[in-house]
Amino acid sequence: MKPISILTVVAALAIGTVAFLGCNSDSTSRKQKSAAAAASAAQQVYVAPGKLDDYYAILSGGQSGSMFVYGIPSCRFIKEIAVFEPRAGQGYANNPGSESYKRLAASGPMWGDTHHPVLSQTDGKYDGKWLWINDKANDRIAKVDLRTFETAEIKTVPNIQGSHGLAAYLPSCKYVFVNGELETDHTSNTGDATKYRSVIAFLDAQTLETKFQVSFVGNADIASSGKDGRYVFSTMYNTENALSSEGMIERDRDAVGAIDVPLAEKAVAEGKFTKINGVPVIESEKVPGVLTLIPVPKNPHGCNVTPDGKYVLASGKLSPTVTIIDAHTLKVIAEPEVGLGPLHTTFDNRGNCYTSLFVDSQIVKWNLEKAIKGANDYIVDRVDVHYNVGHTKAAGADTSYPSGDWLISLNKLSKGMFLPVGPGMPESQELIDISGDKMRVIAAFPSLPEPHDAVFIHRKVLENVVVQTHHLEPTAVKLGEEKVVRNGSKVDVFMTCIRSKFVPEAFEVHEGDDVTIHLTNVETVRDMTHGVAIPRHGINIAVDPGQTTVVPFKALKQGTYWYYCTWFCSALHLEMRGRMIVKPTGEPLNENPNAVSKAEKVASAAGEKKGASYE
Ligand code: RUQ
Ligand code: CUA
Ligand code: CA
Known about the structure:
By secondary structure, the chain is mainly beta.
């Protein structure tokens, strides 16, 4: 037997040592830890099929002109709420002449730029009633009914350009108010820059009529309401009233504007306003105290009132600070540094703030009381996000009772986060668990462009709110009462649909007739949507259970046009169709065109072959 050389032993030991070290090395344990972390993160977002998420997260759709509903924590996409842009899939504003089309078209363009979703509150909590959203590009505000998650109202705001920051006036939610970010000469529209002003508009939260406005020199960006019915706040980055981007960063300090709402109401009652385009406009210079400017570092962006209503925070954007302002005395009380590019701040239920850092691509968690006291350990944690976060929002952070469990980071760029689909990439959101001391990024999910802001509402709040079927309107067509009513060239077709039949299944009109279909979906179960497409006529309707849709159009040239159901609803979905028979002007119309028996059809066909006419 060959003696084992001492060298071999040493080598073996060395290898063994290396191998031994290898399985206990930092990198291995780090890998194991990260695998364990991934597994636990996966568990946190896993919501089994058939199980419901805890939260609805409602994201504004930016250039999509809509809002997106996601389930949290699963990050599953649930619905797009169509608002400022037609959506054929929802039968929303896609048929000229329909109610939703008329309302949208009457308010402006058929697209929008939605930024800030706002939920209604009662007693400092979400009440599950209304959801408001702004269209920054076309100066419109819309209201969504949370019973149906459908747009219920859209109004244009006069005297404003760039209707940006939107918030509800708390605690009553009597008004929603919207900030005019872009300055104009709204009195005489001369283009004379020396006359430029901006307005903050107060709208009746229900009708969306503009009740009054406060005008001032400068601009207003993001909005937030105090909680006691006195002040509302807005960040103002162009107190310079400049016309160029260089000019807008000239001053070292800009402002947070505080509007004293009761004082503004009093000024309106006392006639201290000028009526412009039908709206009482209070010039801030003429009513002392109505608008207080609180100096903050230059060009602030986010404006957020703490859940207890004590402070308003202005995020520095160009300054690495957040300015903490006493929401009652309007005094600046601290200006902690948080990182580069602070844009928006949100809250948990343990006294912590979470600020998005656009330049640092981070969410920074910091303690409010410690920052106010000047303690040097006020920064609690930082987490990287991917990439360049704009807004961030924690569950319930706009209410008096944040829940402190989830936070969403609305990132502006997704870079390599998802499968590449060309030069443009989807928007990216990240879900962050904020329930512990350390934040944990749990999941990332893409969306259409481009969510700016989000609100979360707990499933329990909406449990008994969201309806199963639409409330039948007085104009609904009832089963058995379907009919065709003619008045000269005007034809109203009162139609019902239910699995798997339209009634009537055929009707006749003349070329050029003004036809209006009143279609009621008489289903009584949730989710049984039917649709009607009419070939060549540009009509596509979707009607949810209980809903009535009215669609006017002009009948084209003579022929048979099969209207058919566009939503797969039953085994007889394909058979769910009917005929609009268009006849030349003057030809007699059959009031019951489907009452033709098979024998008659055969006889007719045979007659035609022999060249005989069929009476
Ligand atoms: S604004 S980040 Cu409307 Cu903050 Cu977009
Ligand atoms: Cu009704 Cu398909
Ligand atoms: Ca400025």
